[in-house]
Design a protein that fits this description.
Layout: H1 4-21, H2 29-35, E1 39-43, E2 51-56, E3 59-65, H3 75-89, H4 91-98, H5 116-129, H6 132-139, H7 146-156, H8 160-168, E4 176-181, E5 184-190, H9 211-218, E6 226-227, H10 239-242, E7 247-248
Parallel strand pairs: 1-3
Antiparallel strand pairs: 2-3, 4-5, 6-7
The structure holds zinc ion.
InterPro entries: IrrE_HExxH, Rad_response_metalloprotease
Domain IrrE N-terminal-like: 71-167
Protein name: ImmA/IrrE family metallo-endopeptidase
């Protein structure tokens, strides 16, 4: 997890770039690349990478894998492109590319990386596509629920996952996102103000009496958030925290 200070730094950097190049419209990573003289290409690169940035012969080039999505306007390639721009705009990343310290590396848009460089580029990407001050305006007078996430995701051309991760860092609401595949927890992330820290079986099976647990057990889908007891998901919940409202919601993700 990035420190709060680093999150703010990267968010501010991304917002400055969004305001400079796309001040009054949806943020277009390809437009920003063009303005910075970064060439790019997209296509079906198999499973080699989702995105890649190269520095060769004095210039940068970005590759975006559009195998699953067809074109650069879809949410996933937009995020991938923004992630690669992160490697260009974040000073330390660019310097490392310029002096060959980190040769081009494949990046994957699955939010599962534990590499701090990748986590920084992901945070930059979410902040670029969903600039803090614009998103905060959309949140005014709206309570936090899934329809807010959907509205913001559509407005900014960002995936549901990227949108939830962004909302996590703008202090709208304490949030934890748990990604599980075939009944097992793959990764989880939470906002700094999220009160429960100790997931039951952090990398084991999803707890039974949660919406995700019910889905994996018998395929049952609930269309809404439901209030459940926090100690279905977490260990060591204090009596004081048990009285807080805790809402569970399950998102079906075929594509991050
Ligand atoms: Zn990367």
């Amino acid at each position: 997890m990035l420190s709060r200070k680093r999150e703010i730094e990267l968010s501010e950097l991304a917002e400055t770039i969004a305001e400079l190049y796309c001040p009054s419209e949806i943020v277009l990573p390809e437009h920003i690349a063009t303005m910075k003289g970064i060439t790019f290409s997209n296509g079906d690169y198999g499973s080699a990478f989702d995105g890649l940035i190269e520095f060769e012969n004095g210039s940068f080039h970005i590759f975006v894998n559009t195998k699953l999505d067809g074109d650069l306007r879809q949410a996933r390639p937009r995020f991938t492109f923004a992630h690669e721009l992160g490697h260009y705009f974040i000073d330390e990343h660019r310097q490392a590319l310029l002096n060959g310290r980190t040769p081009s590396h494949p990046s994957y848009t699955n939010f599962a990386s534990k590499n701090p460089i990748e986590i920084e580029a992901d945070h930059f990407a979410a902040s670029l596509l969903l600039p803090a001050s614009r998103v905060k305006k959309d949140c005014v007078k709206r309570s936090f629920n899934f329809s807010l996430v959907q509205d913001i995701s559509q407005k900014y051309g960002a995936s549901i996952t990227a949108t939830v991760l962004r909302l996590m860092t703008i202090d709208k609401h304490p949030i934890m996102l748990v990604c599980s595949v075939q009944g097992k927890v793959k990764w989880f992330k939470h906002s700094h103000d999220f009160p429960f820290k100790w997931l039951k079986q952090p990398f084991g099976y999803v707890p039974k009496y949660t919406l995700a647990g019910t889905y994996f057990k018998n395929g049952e889908k609930f269309a809404e958030e439901l209030p459940i007891s926090a100690n279905e998901w977490f260990e060591y919940v204090s009596d004081r925290d048990l009285s807080r409202n805790f809402w569970d919601y399950r998102i079906n993700c075929v594509n991050f």
